[in-house]
Specification:
Elements: E1 6-10, H1 15-26, E2 32-38, H2 42-52, E3 56-59, H3 62-75, E4 80-83, H4 84-93, E5 99-102, H5 110-118, E6 122-125, H6 128-145, E7 148-151, H7 154-162, E8 177-184, H8 202-206, H9 215-223, H10 225-238, E9 245-249, E10 255-261, E11 266-270, H11 276-284, H12 298-301, H13 315-326, H14 330-346, H15 354-365, H16 374-400
Parallel strand pairs: 1-2, 1-5, 2-3, 3-4, 5-6, 6-7, 8-9
Antiparallel strand pairs: 8-10, 10-11
Helix pairs in contact: 2-3, 4-5, 5-6, 6-10, 6-14, 9-14, 10-13, 13-14, 13-15, 14-15, 14-16, 15-16
The structure holds NADPH dihydro-nicotinamide-adenine-dinucleotide phosphate.
Length: 401
């Protein structure tokens, strides 16, 4: 590693990306921003480029990249602009990059995140969908290349902090662990009467009580598919069977997760619900740096509540468990159907309660295959998207007739 590690931020314009740049800015000299990437938000990426002066800027959207190129030619001609998935993959595997923050939302992050793992980088993983859709392949690449995989998702980062200090994802399973308890806030609809769920709006679903996040993960939190994806993520990261991963509703979001050991000890990580804490932890690991997050005031918190999740209210949680147990490409199908259904909900083409229906029907219709190669995974992803879209169209036709 060079004296000042180089970092690529995949998804720098998103919620995690912006928080990561905030932490980087608070710790001058800690890392060098080599590349920033976005999909189509030219204005925000331009602003970030002018401030952080990376060597490369990548936009997945070709026309957005062309617009950024025009702007940067005048204001910062030394920054090279690239476009498309090839550009994203390239900046994830550059020799001058030591560390990659994987914070693209959804399956779009798979290829660059996998490229970072293959290239043996330190991979800070926020993009859980990449791991859910390609778990076995991804973890094999981590083992083969010696990449250091550090969880950024707050629950997994909390678990990682509570595991023995020599544990790293992808290496041996942690010793003496009886159970992992993943906490979940229950989102904005934890107590909403069930009969009202069919008519909730995207704005209501995105108004998370404790966390500020991108729109897709906010809806996932409202359905609790987010927790379902996180159970799968935990099984891959920590090498544990799903029977050892328990979801616990904890509305205050202060305890970010817990590890129960064989001897009866329970270790937990607590803090304010602010993603800059796990981001700073992963960026500096094994050291500690300032994150900008204030100290936790336990007297102000007052009480901590815990309850089991209600699977009638949150059927997506049960669907995720079902997919994990089915094995093979079922988790890929689950993730793809969820992405399509959530987008349809955000676009006003599917009611909130239609999300689990679309996922369930897609899981039933898509055969489970052995995820032997990236091609098989990408084909399963694309077939599941077609099936989920057809389900939504059928629903719309039925509603119109
Ligand atoms: P946002 O929607 O806020 O940001 C997504 C980022 O990905 C943006 O930079 C966006 O670019 C980029 N992007 C979107 N689509 C594409 C594409 N097709 N190709 C390339 N880049 C793309 O998401 P979040 O920051 O909330 O979440 C990012 C990831 O982190 C998700 O996987 C989420 O599950 C995970 N995560 C997020 C947490 C949070 O608190 N936000 C907590 C834990 C995990 P543009 O701005 O141009 O659209």
């Amino acid at each position: 590693m060079s004296a000042t590690p180089g970092i690529t931020l995949l998804g720098s314009t998103g919620s995690i990306g912006v928080s990561t740049l905030d932490v980087i800015e608070r710790n001058p000299g800690r890392c060098r921003v080599v590349a920033l990437t976005a999909n189509s938000d030219v204005a925000r990426l331009l602003e970030q480029c002018l401030k952080f002066r990376p060597r490369y800027a990548v936009m997945a959207d070709e026309s957005a990249a062309a617009r950024l190129r025009v702007q940067l030619r005048q204001q910062a001609p030394d920054i090279e602009v690239m476009a498309g998935v090839d550009g994203l993959v390239r900046v994830a595997e550059l020799d001058e990059v030591d560390c990659v923050m994987a914070a693209i939302v959804g399956a779009a992050g798979l290829l660059p995140t996998l490229a970072a793992a293959r290239a043996g980088k330190r991979v800070l993983l926020a993009n859980k969908e990449a791991l859910v859709m390609s778990g076995a392949l991804f973890m094999n690449e981590v083992r083969r290349s010696g990449a250091v995989l550090l969880p950024v998702d707050s629950e997994h980062n909390a678990v990682f902090q509570c595991l023995p200090p020599d544990f790293l994802p992808g290496r041996a399973s942690p010793d003496g662990v009886e159970q992992i308890l993943l906490t979940a806030s229950g989102g904005p609809f934890r107590t909403t009467p069930l009969e009202q769920l069919a008519s909730v709006t995207p704005e209501q679903a995105c108004a998370h009580p404790n966390w500020e996040m991108g729109r897709k993960i906010s809806v996932d939190s409202a359905t609790m598919m987010n927790k379902g994806l996180e159970v799968i993520e935990a099984c891959w990261l920590f090498g544990l069977p799903e029977s050892k991963v328990q979801v616990v509703l904890h509305p205050q979001s202060v305890v970010h997760s817990l590890v129960q050991y064989r001897d009866g000890s329970v270790l937990a990580e607590l803090g304010r619900p602010d993603m800059r804490t796990p981001i700073a932890h992963a960026l500096a690991w094994p050291e500690r740096v300032a994150s900008g997050v204030g100290l936790l005031d336990l007297f102000a918190v007052g009480r901590l509540d815990f309850e089991p999740p209600d699977l009638d209210r949150f059927p997506c949680l049960a669907l995720a468990t079902q997919a994990w147990r089915a094995g093979g490409t079922a988790s890929t199908v689950l993730n793809a159907a969820n992405e399509v259904a959530v987008q349809a909900f955000l676009d006003g083409r599917l009611p909130f309660t239609g999300i689990p229906r679309v996922i369930e029907a897609t899981l039933e219709q898509c055969p489970v295959q052995s995820p032997d190669s990236l091609d098989v995974i990408l084909e399963a992803d694309s077939a599941a998207r077609m099936t989920a879209r057809a389900q939504i169209e059928q629903g719309l036709r039925r509603a119109g007739s």
